[in-house]
Amino acid sequence: MTEDSVIKANLAHQRAMPLTRLLDCGMDPGDARRLHARISEGEPWDAVAETIATERLQQADRAEAEGNIVTAGEARQRGIAALVYAQMAFNFDEPRKVALYRRLVAACRKLTPVFGLPFERVETGYSGKSLIGWLVRPASGSANGTVILFGGQSGWGIAYLPIARELARRGLATLLAEGPGQGETRIEQGLYLQAGVEAAYSRWVDVILDDPSLGAPGIWGNSYGGLWAARTAGSDSRIRACCVNGSFAHPAILPFRTAFEQSAAMIGTEDRAMIEAVMEKLRFDPARDRIACPLLVLHGGADPLVALEDQQPFLDAATGEAALRVWPDGEHTIYNHSFERTALVGDWFAARLDRSA
After folding, report:
1. Whether 171 and 240 share a structural domain
2. CA distance linking residue 266 with residue 272, whole number of Å
3. Is residue 320 packed enough to be buried (19+ CB in 10 Å), middle (13-18) or exposed (0-12)?
4. CA distance 322 to 41
5. Of the candidates 309, 133, 273, 154, which has an alpha carbon nearest to the alpha carbon of residue 224?
């Protein structure tokens, strides 16, 4: 890349990955500030983020070798978060992105013995291939319920590890799911987003219900993932509660390059007409799609992508309990109020998935 193209790319990355988002998904505050400072001086985003990740992962290895397990776990999680953002610099599955994502997966595998909570990689069959995810359990191993948690076009499974830790403190397990068009499910399995994606997420419901120690299933989708969560909750009566955080009921290609590339990568084609056709089939229509389980919709008043009216169809589809929580200054998916958001949703799921209820 030329110097000008690096600067242009870095500005786009800063807009898409502000400090609030970096912190929300687990980067160390000093690491996040260092990333933004160094890319402002012209260094490539992915290179700086990977360097930070390497430092944290090496710190974790040293701590583990010395028997300092808590430090090893904390450092490894910070390294994982840096790798999450390193690979986000690329929208398509070019070799550099694939290499970074594979390094991320390897780091996650090494987290298991030092995480402090039961943590494992899980797979389930779908369409002749495998859906990939990570399962986090409470310390006891048994959960009052399990939340299927995921993002949209760029925020995938393991990015939500900090939320999974908070859910575990409330007695809930979390299945950090990578659906069609996301993460390993896309990169390694070749599964792309298509109409009927709710059938894929229902396979995770099967996984939960096949294990009595996981309790009842809930589903929480962020950004475009909120649409898929709503569609799944509307089609699968086994889901006990659904949270939609900053999503479009009527998906479309947003009018900037990164959004088109992310949509193309997720669906597996750069043909605009084909992308639009898939998105049309994924529309959520309250005249047809109904949500019977308790529903919680989150909205940020300062979200530059999603307007409140974009989420109203989800609320209109509720046939039972439904609630809307708005943060007037909230960014997309409420990055800038992450503690309040996660506490609110965690407590909400804990009350509705409680085995004794």
Report:
1. yes
2. 13
3. exposed
4. 47
5. 154
Angle at 221 between CA 215 and CA 227, to 5 degrees: 125
Residues 17 and 135 in one domain: no
User: How far is 351 from 147, CA to CA, in rounded Å?
Assistant: 12
Q: Tell me, what CATH number does 26's domain have?
A: 1.20.1440.110
Q: Do residue 149 and residue 112 come from a single domain? A: no
Q: Check residue 357 and give its pLDDT.
A: 57
CATH of the domain at 292: 3.40.50.1820
Where does the pLDDT of residue 131 fall: very low under 50, low under 70, confident under 90, or very high at 90 and above?
Answer: very high
Last residue of a domain, one of 47, 81, 116: 116
- State the average pLDDT for the chain: 96
205/296 same-domain check: yes
Domain count of the fold of the chain: 2
Q: What is the pLDDT of residue 39?
A: 94
State the average pLDDT over residues 214-241. Answer: 98
DSSP 8-state secondary structure symbol assigned to residue 33 = H
Is residue 152 within 8 Å of residue 173, measured between CB atoms?
no
| pLDDT tens digit sequence for 286-328 | 999 999 999 999 999 999 999 999 999 999 999 999 999 999 9
Query: Any bridge partners for residue 300, and if so which?
Result: 327
101 and 165 within one domain: no
Q: Which amino acid is at 186?
A: R
**pLDDT score recorded for residue 104:** 98
Range of the domain at 219: 117-357
The residues near 194 (Cβ < 8 Å, ≥ 6 apart) are: 180, 267, 278
Predicted confidence at residue 273, as pLDDT, reads: 97
